[in-house]
Structures are given as structure tokens and as C-alpha cells.
Amino acid sequence: xxxxxxxxxxxxxxxxxxxxxxxxxxxxxxxxxxxxxxxxxxxxxxxxxxxxxxxxxxxxxxxxxxxxxxxxxxxxxxxxxxxxxxxxxxxxxxxxxxxxxxxxxxxxxxxxxxxxxxxxxxxxxxxxxxxxxxxxxxxxxxxxxxxxxxxxxxxxxxxxxxxxxxxxxxxxxxxxxxxxxxxxxxxxxxxxxxxxxxxxxxxxxxxxxxxxxxx
Length: 215
Known about the structure:
26% of the residues lie in helices and 20% in strands. By secondary structure, it is α/β, with parallel strands linked by helices.
């Protein structure tokens, strides 16, 4: 977080001696009991940051420059999955993420914990008007690729797309008909069906994002 979004950090909270490397920030010493009372983890690392949430997160306006690759999460409700997908998107240099209003909140405690500090390294929009954002990106020349268990194509198309919106759907229901009808490609990751019926959405997303990064 310090490396990816230093301007978002308002204050550093810590236990013990002042941490080195944070002298440009306001520092506040807390007791172990105080840290425990505000931490969502069982065992705290003894240092926390107070950050400012990025402007625009809960709006339906895209950034003027959305970047080359965008992840779209439709109604993914498990905060661990959402946080893991945000972290993976950051790792594979995605520029932003669109979440539906029914997705887990990207800045809920479990989501933030699962991102391992990556939540501020890319733009995020969480809105019920996500289809309008998809339509706008397609007008800008982006290709919408949907991960679909019934998709007729293999994931190799992901390597051939320069301006990409990758769509992943709800853990149980998958992607909506409205989104599938908008998609330019529907891809399926083949698995050994006799051993596993399908992949977890976070695993599927990781594979797709990795493939899309291979140019």
C-alpha cells in the first residue's frame, strides 16, 4: 500500500517503537489492547494504516483513462473471493475493477484483508449501473470476454485482446443473460470433470488474468 498508493495514507498506527520508513506520515502509538480492538485479524502484525477511500469508488462514472485491462465481477458475494480477485488483478497489472451492487463491498474488512494491501493500487467502481459502464467501455473499443461454463471458446482469445474487459460471475449462478448477450467472446476453462465439476471463481479468474497478460 505504501508503494502503490502513498498519498492515500493518512496515519500509521503501531505498537512499540516507531516503525522505520514511515517518517513522512503521521504516526500514532497504540497499546496492544487498542490495536486488537480495531483489528479484524486474530493475530495483528502490530502496524496498521488509516487510509482515505479513493474518490469515485461508489459512483457510476468511469475514469477518463480506464487502462488496457479491466476486471468485471458480477454479484460475487464472498468477500474472500472478491479480495483475492482484486489482489490477483493488481498482480497481473489490470487497471481497474467494476463490481455490481450485489458484490461484496471491496472495502469491507475481510475483502481488504484478502487483498493484502492491493486494494488501492487500481481503480474500483461498485455500482448497480455496471451494465452502463460495460456499454461505455465497449464504445471505447474494449472487447468483453465472459468466463462461462458453457462457453464455446478456449481461453486463448485472452492473449489476443489488447483492450479487455474480463467478466466473472456469481459463485452459484454464473453470469447473467444480460451480460452474456453483450459479450464478444465466451470462454471456458476445461477441467477434468470426473474429478472436479468446476473451478472456484477466484481460481478461474487467476487463470484468465494470467493468460491475458501473456502477449
